[in-house]
């Protein structure tokens, strides 16, 4: 089984070694605007990261980065668009940890995962486990006890089936033995809106989306999904402080169509690393709850493979299905 999963994971990014060496190199890159596609709606964590880094990348490469939101189907619409785009460096893709789950969740995808090649990881972040203030809990321990007392009655929202928030919650459910009900949305922002309205009672959501509402008292933060507490919320513990061994981190990376010249990939990789090393960028991302995380294309490939294997186990144990 492990060998099969590794083979499937490798297919996601196998295109990294198939860059054309001479394609579209007659002119210096870039000489026109670059479209940065992401598979989630405006105001979500992916959108916030892309818009902030897009400004910095525009300054670095002297060409505009145009953000193109293509939400829906857990990123599949955006992934397909970029996979079928010309491999010239002018259409790039921002993916989150959801990307690594798709090959396990879907029997067939409208694109070949090998049609997308890695450029770099860019950031990682914890989700904040938040509840509606009306839910009578103030800690992870309280939440587990209430869920066991009221099996199936507590609803949790996510940005969609198979998203990082969904799997983070399913891992929590499996490790605690509770019975809670999944309510998927088309992106995290509408799910958070319904959490604020009390239509769902709990959610794992990235800090840029949920923190303003936590600070405003509209949501109650119980715990962080990662291995460390967040500097901006030092009093909020990690889930792992109550549920031993629990850890779920959301990551973000940049991919391009297979066949994109290696020189262009290297240019993007170099400028991403340079931008992320800027003190104001690191400070701004940290304030939003992100940690910068650069890599080579090859290291990005290996990381996505390992994440695919890790979360495939959760998907199968939880019985998550989309097809």
Low-confidence stretches: 15-26
* Amount of beta strand: 15-25%
CATH class of the largest domain reads: Alpha Beta
The CATH superfamily name of the largest domain is Bordetella uptake gene, domain 1
Number of domains: 2
Q: What percentage of residues falls in helices of 4 or more residues?
A: 25-40%
CATH architecture of the largest domain: 3-Layer(aba) Sandwich
Instruction: Please give the number of β-strands.
Output: 10
Order of helices and strands: HEHEHEHEHEHEHEHEEHHEH
First-to-last CA distance: 21 Å
Average residue pLDDT: 91
Profile the largest sheet.
8 strands, mixed
Outline: globular
Q: CATH topology of the largest domain, what is it called?
A: D-Maltodextrin-Binding Protein, domain 2
Q: Helical segment tally?
A: 11
Describe the structure.
With 323 residues, the protein is an alpha/beta fold. It is globular and about 65 Å long. The chain has helices at 2-12, 45-61, 76-83, 102-105, 140-149, 164-176, 188-197, 207-215, 262-276, 279-287, 297-318, and strands at residues 34-38, 65-69, 91-96, 116-131, 155-158, 181-184, 202-206, 220-224, 249-257, 290-292. The longest helix is centred in the C-terminal third of the chain and has 22 residues, at 297-318. The protein is built from eleven helices and ten strands. The strands form two sheets. Strands 1, 2, 3, 4, 7, 8, 9 and 10 form an eight-stranded mixed sheet that branches. The chain has a two-stranded parallel sheet with strand order 5-6.
